[in-house]
Amino acid sequence: MKSHITIYAGVDKNGNKENYTKIILKLGEVVSIVGHTGSGKTLLISDIEQLSQKDSVSQRLITIDDKLPDFEERFDPEKKRIAMITQNTKCVSDLVVEEFLKIHALSRNIFEKELVEKVISLANKFTGESITGEAKVTELSGGQTRSLLFADAILIGASPIILVDEIENAGINKSEILKYVKNENKLVIFASHDPAIVLATEKRIIMKNGAIEKIIEHTDADRAVLESVLEADRVIKYVQEMLRDGLELGGGM
Amino acid sequence: MKLLLVGGPPSTGKTTVVQRIIEKRKEKYKIAYLKMDVVTAHEEALICDTYGIEAKTVYAGDLCPDHAEVMILTDALKWAEGICADLLIVESAGLCLRCSPYLNQGVGVVVLSMLAGLHSVDKMKQLICFADVAVLTMNDLVCQAEREVYIRKLKTGFEHLKVLETNALQGIAVEYLCSMVDESKELDINTLELKGNPPLGTCSICMGSKKVGWKNHYGVVRQIDSNVSDYMYRGD
Ligand SMILES: Nc1ncnc2c1ncn2[C@@H]1O[C@H](COP(=O)(O)OP(=O)(O)OP(=O)(O)O)[C@@H](O)[C@H]1O
Ligand SMILES: Nc1nc2c(ncn2[C@@H]2O[C@H](COP(=O)(O)OP(=O)(O)O)[C@@H](O)[C@H]2O)c(=O)[nH]1
Ligand SMILES: [Mg+2]
Ligand SMILES: [Mg+2]
Ligand SMILES: [Zn+2]
User: Fold this and answer.
1) Is B45 exposed, middle or buried (0-12, 13-18, 19+ CB in 10 A)?
2) Ligand number, closest to the Cα atom of A212
């Protein structure tokens, strides 16, 4: 993968052709997918992950750099370069964080000494409860796990495409993630119900009834709204912290 | 007739992978399905009822299923030929992890669950090393980093091995496996042989004979339709 993927139209849940010919997504872009529950966000993400060749229910076709992917590019994990992070993916090996990251880096022939530290400190920018190198990966909370995996995908993972399905429930610090992601030459796609993520991405894909309904480019108006959403988010986070710390809210609030 | 041999530890997704293969190829082949298990197996009814294809179960009792498979395979091939099948799928619930059911013909698949964690690869060397292709399931449940390491381990440990990962419930990657079956040669029963040397045990396979079929063996051997009670000792 050098520059972009292209999605060619499939069908919606009723079998009607989707209303576009093709959609191009480039490296360096941060894109979101929005739509009601059941509208097909996860299926679109999984189409991209599988590089579907009209062989999923949506019948979409996806090309890499204008070429049809061959079997190996689709299914040989060493040739396929797409990382996916969802609510379901877990760490299952009995390893501490440091070892886990070291083994992953070694498997990719990366021997940079400070890398493990870098990943942990990036992960800690995303999550409220900080992660230590000595913690067991199997004992991390959902939010910690996803923060660690996301930082790992950015810094150690080989994949130029990172797909993220509903990361927000994990109590992750979104504005941090987006700030960092934008500096990378990766294509990052978020399926999300979270207005802060949706408004912060450059492009949003709107899903309806299993089909891609339309694509909206980021505007200045979005940016203004994003500011108030982030402000509201900060208030929520502040109250959340107070509640978590066991403070009693006296009087007015 | 073509042969697809599916092995691997229990509950790794063997039957699920087989189901996806049947769905993709039941128009192209007349498929027969044979399950080797120890004491109970639900697969025969499942496969038979869901897809309406011929299915059969053989219980290995206190033999290792992979051992039992070697004994009954020629009979099984005759059974499949008798019902005019042109693809026989054998699912073996390999349990002892000392032996390997793979043959010098057909396609040998080992199904591994990535939920078993990174160390599991080392424990199953014996089983993995004679398979043609490893199918790694549960990729929907295991994080990317561990999957990358798991696969690197397999690829460095077993150079000839093709590796593919899949969510066997969807099974899109299974098409790759199907195309390997399509490309595989027709079986020649006379030259059929185990790839690996079986471990120590109680019969002539244990002593290193690689011949397939109970007629070629003595000791604790088994026929396809025998009861658990009459398996004890036979031989010419
Ligand atoms: N184009 C389509 N054709 C047929 N079925 C579809 C199509 N798109 C989605 N579906 C099916 O609809 C169901 C819901 O889709 P999906 O899980 O992708 O929704 P979602 O937008 O991710 O929902 P949520 O917000 O709850 O996560 C799934 O079973 C999916 O396979
Ligand atoms: N999430 C998930 N579940 C799977 C996958 N493969 C198999 N399963 C489930 O794992 C269980 C065991 O699978 P089965 O095929 O019976 O394993 P077998 O004993 O090896 O034949 C079943 O409940 C399957 O539905 C997979 O890739 N992902
Ligand atoms: Mg979803
Ligand atoms: Mg089974
Ligand atoms: Zn055995």
Assistant:
1) exposed
2) 1
Domains of chain B (ranges, CATH numbers): 2-191 (3.40.50.300), 200-236 (no CATH)
Please give the residue of chain A at the shortest CA–CA distance from B166: A75
Atom of ligand 2 nearest to the CA of B171: 27
Nearest to A34 by CA among A168, A222, A197: A197
> What counts of helices (H) and strands (E) characterise chain B?
7, 7
Two tokens, residue B236: 């010419």
User: CB contact, 8 Å: B41 with chain A?
Assistant: no
Tell whether the torsion through CA atoms of A151, A142, A105 and A49 is positive or negative: negative
pLDDT tens digits, residue range A72-111?
A: 888 777 777 888 888 788 889 889 999 999 999 988 888 8
Task: Give pLDDT, residue B17.
Answer: 96
Question: Interface pTM (ipTM) of the complex?
Answer: 0.77
Dihedral pair phi/psi, residue A2, rounded to 5°: -105, -40
Phi, psi of A7 (to 5 degrees): -105, 125
User: Mean pLDDT of residues grouped by 10 in chain B (236 residues)?
Assistant: 93 95 95 88 90 90 77 90 95 77 93 91 86 93 88 89 90 88 93 77 67 76 64 53
Contact (Cβ atoms closer than 8 angstroms) between residue B225 and residue B79 = no
> In CATH terms, is domain A1-81+160-218 a member of 3.40.50.300?
yes
Q: What is the pTM of this model?
A: 0.82
Would you say residue A187 has pLDDT above 60? yes
